[in-house]
Specification:
Structural class: mainly alpha
Helix content: over 70%
Shape: elongated
Number of domains: 2
Number of helices: 7
């Protein structure tokens, strides 16, 4: 028959990790539990030497500086190919064009380097999986790297197309600038020796096409006023 006292004893057994149904099961004292069991077989230590050796062994060698140098050389060839196809030879030495070439080479180098690094990490993922170090996370990482490589390749294609268009626009900008400078120089040379009608205390030197036009207007206006005055005198 269950009583409050017996229920309390059973509850204490449960708290101590004992089965209250099984009789005569005592709890080991702290001293007994602390003593080593002489007849209990000892668990052999786990040998992690093979795993440590596997992790320390390099999968491959990657020379970052050498790889980047080779990629930059390839990008310089690509950009110069676009420039030589679009920009006339007499414009290539322009300072702005040279600065733009270096900027575009650096931009392409960074994009191609990102593709290379992600490809290396993808290779490492595959080789670790081939060695038996496979987890569900490995598949997830592989998929993310694949998507990233495809995205960067698209950026490279778009960047090269944008570079080509930039140099096309730049060619016409340089051509218009040179034409404008040439026209300004010719206008200055032709107008420097031109002298307008006398005004005030001497002759006025015309230094630009704009001032020449203004001076012509003033001369016409002055001539018109003179004619009007003579007509009034005759009348």
């Amino acid at each position: 028959m269950s009583t409050i006292k017996s229920d309390r004893v059973d509850f204490e057994k449960l708290l101590n990790g004992l089965d209250p149904v099984t009789p005569h099961v005592g709890v080991q004292s702290t001293e007994q539990s602390a003593k080593p069991q002489e007849n209990q077989p000892q668990t052999p230590p786990i040998d992690n030497a093979s795993s440590a050796q596997l992790m320390q062994e390099p999968l491959f060698f990657f020379d970052y500086d050498s790889e980047r140098k080779g990629i930059r050389k390839k990008c310089r060839k690509t950009v110069l190919g676009i420039v030589n196809h679009v920009i006339p030879e007499n414009m290539i030495d322009d300072e702005y064009v040279q600065d733009k070439i270096e900027q575009d080479i650096e931009t392409l180098t960074e994009l191609y380097m990102q593709v290379k690094l992600n490809t290396v990490m993808q290779r490492a993922n595959v080789e670790m999986t081939a060695r038996g170090n496979y987890t569900a996370r490995s598949t997830e990482v592989f998929g993310q790297l694949t998507d990233k490589i495809q995205s960067i390749n698209k950026q490279i294609f778009d960047t090269e197309q944008r570079i080509r268009k930039t140099y096309l626009d730049l060619k016409f900008e340089i051509r218009d600038k040179k034409s404008e400078d040439f026209a300004t120089g010719m206008s200055g040379d032709n107008n420097a020796g031109m002298i307008s009608n006398q005004s005030g205390n001497g002759h006025v030197l015309v230094s630009s096409s704009k001032s020449l036009i203004e001076e012509i207007k003033n001369v016409k206006k002055s001539t018109y006023v003179t004619k009007e005055a003579k007509a009034e005198v005759i009348e």
